[in-house]
Amino acid sequence: MYFEAIGQMKKMLGQLDKWLEAAGTYAQTKNFDPNVIVGLRLAPDQFAFARQIQSCCDSAKFAAFRLAGKETPKQEDNEKTLDELRARVRSTIGLLDGFTAQDFAEAATRKVAQPRWEGKWMTGPDYFLEHAQPNFFFHLNHAYAILRHNGVNIGKRDYLGPLSLHNP
Amino acid sequence: MYFEAIGQMKKMLGQLDKWLEAAGTYAQTKNFDPNVIVGLRLAPDQFAFARQIQSCCDSAKFAAFRLAGKETPKQEDNEKTLDELRARVRSTIGLLDGFTAQDFAEAATRKVAQPRWEGKWMTGPDYFLEHAQPNFFFHLNHAYAILRHNGVNIGKRDYLGPLSLHNP
Q1: DSSP states of A107-162 as a string?
Q2: Cβ neighbours of residue B100 under 8 Å, at least 6 residues apart?
Q3: Within an 8 Å CB–CB cutoff, is residue A7 touching chain B?
Q4: pLDDT value at residue A31
Q5: Which residues of B touch A42 (CB under 8 A)?
Q6: Most buried by CB count within 10 Å: which residue of A62, A160, B2, B144?
Q7: Is residue B93 a contact partner of residue B36, using CB atoms and an 8 Å limit?
Q8: Long-range contacts: B97-104, Cβ < 8 Å, 24+?
Q9: Coil, helix or strand for B17?
Q10: ipTM attached to this prediction
């Protein structure tokens, strides 16, 4: 199930890449600098758009590497343009592509810790359900909401992406 | 895993109830009608706050009942006040409380359909990962974002809620 849940994140990151593309198109149509979008936020004390994307990518990356018991590769959080943010999203998808179902065989019994918890730890399942997944969707949806609030032409279908529907 | 994932939704709905409480307190402090919040939205062509809450609750309710192969109880979507929205959230938590792990024993092999799909169907796992869970988090986070955008005093800890941390 962790492999499938990481697959869900990978799919949603693919959708995020499409929203970023739509944001670039919107800037072109309205004739404003597309990189203005990088600094937008919904509240003055919330993360700006760029950091929502970075945090979304990191939530997925940390979930996969921690649950697989592998060391997480560092990234710089230095993206300043829409194109650099798209590259960040794609590099995260690339990292997630490297996992197999077998990598998560011990996820259910793994202890997960992070520096902020000062020695405390969570079980793999608790970490995923209480922390990684809600955080991933938090930043993903705030990125989406910032774009919608500013008029970018995306909708629910662009959020969900294609569904695996079967004919009757 | 479905039982645990529905448990995650139940926990997040409990957090949502706290945000609604904070919204009421904010209205009192700033001396405006708390039910103004019910009609707020982030974009003119997005759902207003009330419908974000109703859709969030329904995503969780449908996920549980459909994956358990039970008929989903209908609700009216007639909430017009913050208090009525809190009651809706709590009644949804109450419905989810009625499920046991055993109820989801056949979820992985279940076929899920809904009227909008015109006869087409999804497997239980695809429905949950591609549709129910992303929709749940979509509406949950849009409700949160609407409140933050309008100055309600909530933060990331109120979003995540308590974490099951263990001592070293």
Answers
A1: GGG-EE--GGGTT-BEEHHHIIIIIIHHHHHHHHHHHHHHHHHTT----HHHHH--
A2: B3
A3: yes
A4: 98
A5: 42, 145, 148-149
A6: B144
A7: no
A8: B97/B10, B99/B3, B99/B6, B99/B64, B99/B68, B100/B3, B101/B3, B103/B3, B103/B64, B103/B68, B103/B70, B104/B2, B104/B3, B104/B6, B104/B67, B104/B68
A9: helix
A10: 0.97
What's the confidence (pLDDT) of residue A1?
Answer: 87
Q: Which of A126, A161, A165 sits opposite B117 (nearest CB)?
A: A165
Confidence of residue B1 (pLDDT cuts 50, 70, 90): confident
CB contact (8 A) between residue A130 and residue B4: no
Given this model, what pLDDT does residue A160 score? 98
Whether the pLDDT of residue A167 is over 90: the answer is yes
**0.90 exceeded by the pTM?**
yes
B90-124: pLDDT as tens digits: 999 999 999 999 999 999 999 999 988 999 999 99
CA distance A132 to chain B (A): 10
Average pLDDT, integer, range A72-98: 97
Q: Which position has the token pair 């208090």?
A: B83
- Record: contact B42-A43, CB cut-off 8 A: no
CATH for A2-160? 1.20.120.450
